Amino acid sequence: MTDSGVLLIDKPVGITSFDVIRQLRKITRIRRMGHTGTLDPFASGLLIICIGKATRLSAKIINQNKQYSAVMQLGIKTDTGDSTGNKVSEKDFAEVKVNQIKKLVPEILKISEQIPHRYSALKVNGKKAYELARNNQDPELQPRQISILNFRFAKIELPRITYVATVSKGTYIRVLSETIGEMLNNYGSTVELRRTAIGKIKVEKAEKLASLNPENWRDKLFPLINIFSEFPQIEISEKEREDFRQGRKLGVDFPDVKDLLITCDNSVLGFGEVEEKILRPRTVIV
Fold first, then answer.
1. pLDDT, tens digit (0-9, with 9 covering 90-100), for 274-283
2. What is 5-64+200-223's CATH topology?
3. Exposed site from 18, 57, 133, 261, fewest CB < 10 Å?
């Protein structure tokens, strides 16, 4: 039996990402685990949970693009940027037209910088920004480089606008909704949010927390090789497997690459780096 791997969880609305970890620790009786990207309590959708030695691969997953389905409401500004916050301002949206909204897509796709929300978990001088905001302090947050890789409006029934966006790591959908509101000379607040994909992994493949128990959770582990399908990959032999496990260099016929997925018998061993036909182990999970 393995005590290492990845679980795909469809987080329900109303609990934190760490609540998911807490419940899974009780089910698996394993403490070493972590998620690969926080979802706020009001949001639902895909959480990829790394268990045991697979936690060493968390950074590779965190850096993958994410897809969200969001519902924003025009005309309302809240202190948190979403439906959980206090309303701080309102604005009439009668002048906003559907065609005007649809024409925003090219402009939205050009967004390359974003200032994280003051109600975020980013740390400022050792404290989380939202903790400072709750104490009526204004945390100084620096702009971050982001990418909006794909964007479409799925439904427009004013004052609500539903959109689907594929974004780079570190993009705040709450801030994106506010930005769309500003583009319309109005306010925008996120009222529903669902993460529908991380990389190529869709939420449809995820498990409901209620369906897992101590007897079946290992059967629900998702193949690591599918998680990292976007990375270049090399299959090594059983003999080379032991060398890789021990951190020894291997000679390989492969071009130079920084992040190479290493497999043996279709199982993930970790990641390595190739330079001048020499493979150096970088992250080992066996």
1. 999 999 999 9
2. Pseudouridine synthase (3.30.2350)
3. 18
